[in-house]
Amino acid sequence: MTLTLLPDLGDLLRLHPQYNAGTVVEILRHLGASEVLWASDTDPDHPLRDALPAARIGIQDGFTADWAWADAEHGQLQGFLSQYPQGRERLRGAAGAEREFAALVTVPMLPAQVVGAEVLDAARAYHAATRAALDEGPGTHWREKRLTELAAKLAGQTGVVIVPLDDVPGLLDLLPDSRVPDLSGFAPGETSRLRALADRAWQLREDDDLNALLAALDRETGDRVTPGAELSAAAAGIYLAVGDLVAARELLESAAHALTDDLPRSLTGLTLARLGQVRDAQGDRELATRTYRAVLALNHAPAIAIATAEAGLKEPFSLTLEG
């Protein structure tokens, strides 16, 4: 048995139509995995922290390396280098390498590309350029130490592990029995498509065809990863954006009534926080306040929902539309 490294894109999963949280669920099903080891971002609002439990895929924690010291050490180095002209030039070189890598991974990719040689080679080049810019030793030791610690935790493990994309090449070197999955014959399916639709609806852009988005949302009934309640809440956000409070409230109240414990855990907080805003905008301050408090009483409300509820309790939400 080997250890399969499945690259994680973090919040970028919300932006990639064919490598999103739903796609990762489908990949894991394709690989026959009912559980994953977690060695990626510790953010509780990570997209996969919703999608995997909703899909009945277990998450085994305890494999994430401690990053706090590494971030602190790297921050101290940056502060030191920024005091000197040559140091600032080195920091610009490192920032340029990061921008170049980011430009590659923010372009929509197919799953086979994410685990392909071009992207993994780009990750190697990114870290090599960072080492060259910051110099060997203190400039990059923090990352090498963190990767060594992470590899030690994963040594001897089998199955599938979720790891940050740019850590994959280093872990492949440190863990000889590890590999990336062969996704050449894999194609994203309905779970991926539904997740992409919802992600797109939550992130409106100025040039969006709102009617087309609403029609697409209305056609779907949802699945475990992207349930109908979320599609309704996302549609409500579109109506709220154009000032149709009546339609937004109707959809949000319908979504709220459909919420159950087995839905993605962040959905309740997101739905109720937005419902509180709509009730506020309609002048129903007492009910809005109760709705905000319901958000704060949740055990797993996402940070954005908590911030929205706290702001709503301090000051009533009002809708301002740009003319």
From TrEMBL:
Name of protein: Tetratricopeptide repeat protein
